[in-house]
TrEMBL record:
SMART domains to which the protein is assigned, alphabetical: VWA
Classification via CDD domains: vWFA_subfamily_ECM
Keywords: Collagen, Signal
Keyword Signal: yes
Protein's UniProt name: Collagen type VI alpha 2 chain
SUPFAM superfamilies: vWA-like
Superkingdom field: Eukaryota
Family stated for the protein in its record: Belongs to the type VI collagen family.
MF (Gene Ontology): extracellular matrix structural constituent conferring tensile strength
Organism of origin: Cynoglossus semilaevis
Length: 423
């Protein structure tokens, strides 16, 4: 078993008092696998912000978190607030990542009742603030009982926020449903156009304020601890598109290390069994330079031999950098390879310092959003363009992996953390 060393000996810690938080997330067919993954990332990124996690579910202090994913009637699945196995933030994250998209109908009112009856009513702590965050992308099944929309409101001690995604937020009838879920409270109905906006830093800031309005900052001495690495995308469809900066700033040796990293990732992940395998991982590599220099070094493939042999023959461009046009090229030339695996999450992994031409950058980011791409950025060194990195990561700063130099790419601690993130 591989272990990654996580040290936080001098880190300050945010404490929010006793919190019981329940996320109710839409797992219906209309959401799609990529957006369902973004919902899970939103949950994880939000909880990362809240500091002290209850190591004992029966403890009177710290944060406990539950999740209900819902689709059609009878398919509700939950991570319970008082689950004895959820004794750390890592255990919670692993449980969230294991949730699988249900892809059925949308029974939102019944899901709210389920959340209260099964996660809150009998397991809440007497001194804890209870908050529910509901995420949905559309109207619920008419066969469901709409009177249950206000089910959580029957307990005035439960604070409810409703997040509506897509055009439903602009429709009066659907907006009224969201207001009912949020108990008609001002500021508790939030809307956004795309699921990718869930993981934007600005939105996480907003939710953090709702969940923990008056944090206390404590700076204890926390010892290092070891955590086991988790499985590598087993039974989960992921299409990973590496975007490799071939500019002169990269340098030949760093370019070589980046290629070595990509090959190690390919060997670490569980690759698909064939082009139509609906599970496991496939990889693609696009190297880019100037606005007219983009090369699909290899398209989405499950073939490790193809990946390894191609990487051995990839020539360093030693050019300028135009990331925007590169993203557009990747979306137009790699996305088509995804037709056989429509439900696969597409993960864009940018290996860049962000110092690039801004021409077409907005268009490129928009193209990635439309392709429902989930970005991750690997940025080495301190000479980086933070605005560009923030933009291509869609504002999710936790999706930016940093290090002093490219030597860190294949060190176990960095490598395993990256694999856990992608998976």
């Amino acid at each position: 078993m591989t272990f990654a060393l996580l040290c936080a000996s001098a880190d300050c810690e945010k404490r929010c008092g006793a919190l019981d938080i329940v996320f109710v997330i839409d797992s219906s067919e209309s959401v799609g696998l990529t957006n369902f993954t973004l919902e899970k990332n939103f949950v994880i990124n939000t909880i990362n912000r809240l500091g002290s996690f209850s190591k004992d579910p029966e403890s009177e202090s710290g944060t406990r978190v539950g999740v209900v994913q819902y689709s059609h009637n009878g398919t509700f699945q939950a991570i319970r607030l008082n689950d004895p196995k959820i004794d750390s933030l890592t255990a919670f994250k692993d449980a969230v990542k294991r949730l699988e998209w249900i892809a059925g109908g949308t029974w939102t009112p019944s899901a709210l009742k389920y959340a209260y009856d099964h996660l809150i009513r009998d397991s809440r702590r007497a001194k804890a603030n209870v908050t529910v965050v509901v995420i949905t992308d559309g109207r619920f099944d008419p066969r469901d009982d709409d009177s249950l929309l206000t089910y959580l409101c029957s307990d005035p001690s439960v604070d409810v926020s409703a997040i509506g995604i897509g055009d439903m937020f602009d429709q009066i009838e659907e907006n009224e449903s969201l207001k009912s879920i949020a108990c008609q409270r001002d500021g508790r109905v939030l809307g956004m156009r795309r699921f990718a906006d869930l993981v934007a830093e600005e939105f996480i800031d907003k939710i953090e304020t709702v969940l923990c309005p008056e944090p206390v900052i404590i700076c204890p001495d926390l010892p290092c601890k070891s955590e086991p690495a988790v499985a590598s995308c087993v039974q989960r469809p992921v299409d990973v598109v590496f975007m490799l900066d071939g500019s002169e700033r990269m340098g030949l040796e760093n370019h070589r290390r980046a290629k070595e990293f990509i090959e190690n990732v390919a060997r670490r992940l569980t690759l698909a069994n064939g082009p139509t395998d609906e599970r496991n991982a496939r990889l693609a590599l696009v190297q880019y330079g100037s606005p007219t220099e983009q090369r699909v070094e290899f398209p989405l493939t499950h073939n490790l031999t193809v990946i390894s042999d191609t990487l051995a023959n990839v020539n360093y461009m030693d050019s300028s950098s135009a990331l925007g046009s590169a993203i557009i090229h990747a979306v137009n030339n790699v996305r088509g390879e995804r037709k056989a695996r429509r439900n696969a999450e597409v993960a864009f992994v940018f290996i860049t310092d962000g110092i690039t031409s801004t021409e077409q950058l907005e268009e490129g980011v928009t193209a990635m959003r439309r392709a429902e791409g989930v970005p991750t950025v690997i940025a080495m060194g301190t000479d980086t363009d933070e605005e560009v990195l923030r933009k291509v990561s869609l504002g999710d700063m936790s999706a930016i992996f940093r290090g002093d130099d490219y030597n860190i790419l294949n060190k176990p601690s960095f490598f395993e953390r990256f694999v856990r993130w992608i998976c």
